Amino acid sequence: MVEFKIVIADPKTGKSHKKELKDKEATFLIGKKIGDKVELPGMQGYEFLITGGSDYAGFPMRADIQGTVRKRIYAKRGVGFRIKKKGEKLRKTVCGNTIHARITQINMKIVKYGSKPLEPKDNTTGEKTQESPDEAKKVKGGKEEKVKKEETKAEVKSEKGGRSGEEKKEEKKEEEKKQEKSEESSKNSSEEKGKSK
Fold first, then answer.
1. The whole model's pTM is what?
2. Which of 9, 61, 87, 107 has the smallest count of CB within 10 Å of its CB?
3. How many CB atoms are closer than 10 A to CB 59?
4. 21-25, 71-75, 162-166: lowest mean pLDDT where?
5. What does the DSSP assignment read for the chain?
């Protein structure tokens, strides 16, 4: 059983779209290399460029390693290596540039656009699209969502029989009024006692 998770990057929007290919749909990708252009089933008019991927163990594919092998290379830059110091070199395990059955994820980029957009409403495959990190922050950090969260907390408390924030404030005001009245009455009584003396 061959199964590939495909992540498609859209350069226009900055979003990525996920798609899964299994068995017959996936077998045509075996033997393709990084840099090859392909067309995916169910996406008419679109053309994609294979930009990379990773195997079942999470090792990344590199364009400069030929074949389906996994090699331990002496890397100084590129995929699978993050430079921490200038001139640093490390031994890194990477995959070859050719797709085979043990590859799990394939990264692609849209080169040619079709007539239908790849949004979830018009997406015939039913796959979900992934939000860009900036958009997710805008939605999560917005005022509307915070207000909704506060409202739901108040509702939950009232359902449980607890008191909401507004009820507590009202009770505090009533207590303060009672204290003021008691203080005034105690002052009046002390003044009356002083006059009688």
1. 0.56
2. 87
3. 17
4. 162-166
5. --EEEEEEE-TTT--EEEEEEEHHHHHTTTT-BTT-EE--TT-TT-EEEEEEEEETT-PBB-TTS-SS-EEEEEESSSTT---SSTT--EEEEEE-SB--TTEEEEEEEEEE--SS--STTT-TT-PPEEPPHHHHHHHHTSHHHHHHHHHHHHHHHHHHT---HHHHHHHHHHHHHHHHHHHHHHHHHHHHHHHH-
